[in-house]
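Please describe the entry underneath.
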Amino acid sequence: MNKNILLCGVGGQGIVLTSKLTASCAMAKGLDVMSAETIGMAQKGGSVFSFLRLGEGIHSPMFGQKQADILIAFEPAEAVRMLPYLKDGGCAVVNMHPIKPVTASLKGSDYNGDEMIKYIAENVFETYFVDGDAMCRELGSPRVLNMVMLGQALRTGYLPFTVDDAVEAMKKTVKPQFAKLNEVALRYSAG
């Protein structure tokens, strides 16, 4: 069962760690994995995205438009930017909290993400909107957004492993003092 996964957001949201954790889960299941990240101006809140391919007979980490099975988007505008890669019938898991781009701040533009969320809802067959920031507040740390998003994506059934698999991979990836909070975030469900 081959899967194409696209993760996107802005610098500082944990996209690269989430990609590595997802790849670790797949490797633990015996799947071949290839990945490619583009981090650009990540330190300045710029676009970050990661292509992941899981399965058998994979020869390239990249895939073309209309080939992603699932889009895990940590920010609404970044979700819209990467939407052309999602295949018809694919799934999008989208954090609803917008991060105002530097260019919008400099121009005094108003960006609250509502138009992006509406566009996604109208153009993606199966979408799961996540109030990741509210979930992080409930968990007591904004630094676990990536685990919250991965946990929500795992619940869709579009990924070939479970939350338990992700917890085991996470424990091998993060520092021990952060493992418990990250496990709680992976297992957290708003409803």
